[in-house]
Design brief:
Blueprint: H1 30-61, H2 65-68, H3 70-93, H4 96-100, H5 102-118, H6 120-126, H7 129-156, H8 163-192, H9 205-224, H10 245-273, H11 282-306, H12 316-334, E1 337-340, E2 343-346, H13 351-371, H14 375-395, H15 398-406, H16 408-412, H17 415-424, H18 431-440, H19 444-459, H20 469-492
Antiparallel strand pairs: 1-2
Helix pairs in contact: 1-7, 1-8, 1-9, 1-10, 1-11, 3-7, 3-18, 3-19, 5-7, 5-9, 6-7, 6-9, 7-8, 8-11, 10-11, 10-17, 10-18, 10-19, 10-20, 11-12, 11-13, 12-13, 13-14, 14-15, 14-17, 14-20
């Protein structure tokens, strides 16, 4: 199921009041699902804000690339720590969320997110980089809990056979958040709240207090909403999910994918600002991040079409082209937003300047066609494309390097969903435990950016783009291995 980022709990976790176990789903309601999709948007938004935050803090505290990479280390390190604690708790006393209930867990997670954002103001006042890292860790703790709870909840809200469609839609909102965040963050930090045109730490206070207020408002909204009651009072133990090779290899693939995607996004602003690439000012470069994260939105939604069951498969190419054109237009629009002389304005780039990106969108659609909608094959083909793009970015200059690096977002798009579903295939009763182990591997986003930052300090920011190439070589192998495993499985069926 493309776009699936977690799995519904087992059938004994449903609340009897729903009239259906969790595995059978609960009655679909547009209101509750709309609230859940907003959660996906917000955690995508706040996560990608780190890509704008890194160059901001690097300049403010005069950090090396390695030291600036500690932003992602603190943020994604929380995913590992919190997921590990959750995993150990589920082994010893059953699934905590099933005891607390999904709705209450989501409210708690949102309050924690708000607290993490609110701490940015005193961190700026104290002029303390470690304080910022602590605030990021707390913020990421809330995001981790939110992901653990919201993903399966979205899957359960409706008929099981439509779970993939619901999750892909929710993932689309997540990608919308990651697309808008660089634009909003760049405007707020470098223009709206800059002091006399100069970037200072005070510029960070108001934006993150606004984010804190939005998380609190969302917590109140979720708390007061009449969401279907799932979980609360029942729990299940764990099993031996690590006995499955597809999971073990998939854990490594998730680690490397998340690490590579986060590392690329973390240093794109510095890459685009380098004189041998484009020499952009950081505020301008942050706006171009929308092409990287927006590419994930294009690929994810087109992938949902390509890999879905359809009564009329002949129209899939048309739907994919229309989706890609519409979303490319949206990205083109949001990147034109400027803040000039106290007012918002639109400054569109000449279409010829973004033509290379449109070519890459076309190549992404062609890659889906070559893969014929098979998740393992798509994974392998997209990984090979990423290796090629990163090599071009590392050895080229100017616009070729720029668009090769930004185009990586298009081919990163389906990585999470395809690796996740391939890894949990055939886990049966061990699926939930396997899912928690995969979420734990998000810690790659904490470690690989540090390796890339260290390489940038030693050899330069362009050469550092060789580092994530190794990740995609392994993921290409995992796609090939999974294709072989599934072929054997089908022959035996």
């Amino acid at each position: 199921m493309p776009g699936l980022t977690s799995t519904p709990p087992s059938s004994n976790e449903g609340d009897p009041s729903t009239g259906s176990g969790a595995s059978g789903g609960v009655a679909y309601a547009a209101g509750p699902f709309a609230i859940v999709t907003v959660l996906f948007f917000f955690w995508g938004f706040i996560t990608v804000m780190n890509d704008v935050l890194i160059p901001f803090l690097k300049e403010s505290f005069t950090l090396t690339y390695f030291q600036a990479g500690l932003v992602q280390f603190a943020f994604f390190g929380a995913f590992f720590v919190v997921s590990l604690i959750y995993f150990l708790a589920s082994l010893s006393s059953g699934d905590p969320i099933n005891r607390i209930g999904y709705q209450r867990t989501i409210v708690i997670a949102l309050v924690i997110c708000a607290a993490g954002c609110a701490l940015f103001a005193p961190a700026a006042g104290a002029v303390s980089y470690p304080f910022f890292l602590g605030a990021l860790f707390l913020l990421a703790t809330g995001v981790t809990i939110l992901q653990i709870a919201a993903n399966p909840y979205a899957a359960i809200l409706g008929r099981p056979e439509n779970a993939s469609a619901r999750l892909n839609l929710a993932q689309g909102f997540n990608s919308l958040g990651t697309t808008i965040a660089p634009i909003a963050g760049g405007l707020l930090l470098y223009e709206v709240f800059a002091t006399g045109g100069e970037v200072t730490l005070d510029a960070i206070k108001t934006p993150y207090l606004i984010y804190a207020g939005m998380f609190l408002l969302l917590a109140v909204l979720v708390g007061l909403s009449k969401l279907p009651s799932i979980g609360g009072g029942k729990s299940t133990g764990g099993g031996s999910a690590l006995a499955f090779p597809q999971l073990r290899l998939g854990m490594a693939a998730i680690f490397l994918y998340v690490g590579a995607e986060v590392a690329i996004g973390s240093y794109l602003v510095s890459f685009m600002s380098h004189e041998s690439v484009m020499g952009f000012a950081e505020g301008v470069a942050s706006g171009f991040l929308a092409y990287y994260w927006g590419g994930a939105m294009i690929g994810r939604l087109c992938g949902a079409i390509a890999m879905s069951d359809s009564k009329d498969p002949g129209n899939k190419p048309l739907y994919m082209v229309l989706t890609a054109v519409a979303l490319s237009g949206l990205i083109y629009l949001v990147t034109a937003v400027r803040f000039e002389e106290g007012q918002l304005a639109l400054r569109f780039m000449p279409i010829i300047d973004v033509a290379p990106y449109l070519v890459l969108v076309g190549l992404c659609l062609a890659a889906f066609a070559i893969s014929r909608g098979k998740p393992a094959v798509v994974l392998a083909v997209f990984s090979v494309a990423l290796v090629a793009l990163l090599l071009v970015a590392a050895v080229s200059t100017g616009k070729i390097a720029l668009w090769a690096a930004l185009g990586a977002g298009l081919f990163n798009s389906i990585m999470w969903s395809n690796i996740f579903t391939l890894a949990i295939d055939d886990l049966g009763e061990h699926t939930s435990q396997g899912s928690s182990l995969l979420v734990m591997m998000i810690v790659g986003g904490a470690l690989i950016p540090l390796a890339m930052g260290h390489a940038a300090d030693l050899y330069g920011i362009r050469a550092a783009f060789f580092v994530p190439v190794l990740s995609y070589v392994y993921i290409a192998f995992y796609g090939w291995w999974s294709h072989q495993r599934l072929a054997r499985k089908h022959r035996m069926a």
